[in-house]
Amino acid sequence: MSDFTLAALDAIVAARAGSADPASYTARLAAGGVSRASKKLGEEAVETVIAALSEDDKALAGEAADLLYHLLVVLRIRGVPLASVMAELEGRTAQTGLEEKAGRPASGGA
Ligand SMILES: N=c1c2ncn([C@@H]3O[C@H](COP(=O)(O)OP(=O)(O)OP(=O)(O)O)[C@@H](O)[C@H]3O)c2ncn1[C@@H]1O[C@H](COP(=O)(O)O)[C@@H](O)[C@H]1O
C-alpha cells in the first residue's frame, strides 16, 4: 500500500497553484478561479459515478484520484484548509465513539 497521503498531494497543489509555471495544470486551474475549478470538480464527480457503476476497479481508482485532486484544488482556491476537512471528519468519528476501531486512541476526557 502506498504511503502517499492527501496531505502530501495538498502540499504539491499549494506549491503549484501559487506558481506561475505555464506548464502547470494546477496553476492554470487556480488562475481560472473557483467557478471553472468547481465545474471541473463536478465533471470529475460524474465521471467517478459512471466508473463506479460501469467500469473496472482500475478505472474507478483513476477517476477517484482525479476527483480528490480537483477537490483539493477547489479547497485551495476557496482558502479552506484540508486540515479543516480532516477535523470535521475526525469530529464525526469522535461523535460515534469509533476512534479506536479507526486505529486511533480515544481522545479521553469526560
Ligand atoms: N494529481 C494530479 C492530477 N489529477 C488529474 N490532473 C489533471 O487533470 C486534468 C483532467 O483531465 P481532463 O481530461 O478532464 O482535463 P483537460 O481536458 O486536460 O483540461 P480542461 O481543459 O478540461 O480543464 C488532466 O490534465 C490531468 O493531468 C492532475 N494534475 C496534477 N496532479 C498533481 O499535481 C501535481 C502538479 O501538476 P502540475 O500543476 O501540472 O505541475 C502533479 O505532479 C500531480 O501530483
TrEMBL record:
Catalytic activity: 1-(5-phospho-beta-D-ribosyl)-ATP + H2O = 1-(5-phospho-beta-D-ribosyl)-5'-AMP + diphosphate + H(+)
EC number: 3.6.1.31
Domain of life of the native organism: Bacteria
Cellular compartment(s): Cytoplasm
Xref: InterPro entries: HisE (IPR008179), PRib-ATP_PPHydrolase-like (IPR021130)
Alphabetic keyword roster: Amino-acid biosynthesis, ATP-binding, Cytoplasm, Histidine biosynthesis, Hydrolase, Nucleotide-binding
Pathway it works in: Amino-acid biosynthesis; L-histidine biosynthesis; L-histidine from 5-phospho-alpha-D-ribose 1-diphosphate: step 2/9
Keyword match Disulfide bond: no
GO molecular function terms noted in the UniProt entry: phosphoribosyl-ATP diphosphatase activity
Keyword Nucleotide-binding on entry: yes
Top-level class of the enzyme under EC nomenclature: hydrolase
SUPFAM superfamilies: all-alpha NTP pyrophosphatases (SSF101386)
Family: Belongs to the PRA-PH family.
NCBIfam families membership: histidine_hisI, PRK00400.1-5
Protein name: Phosphoribosyl-ATP pyrophosphatase
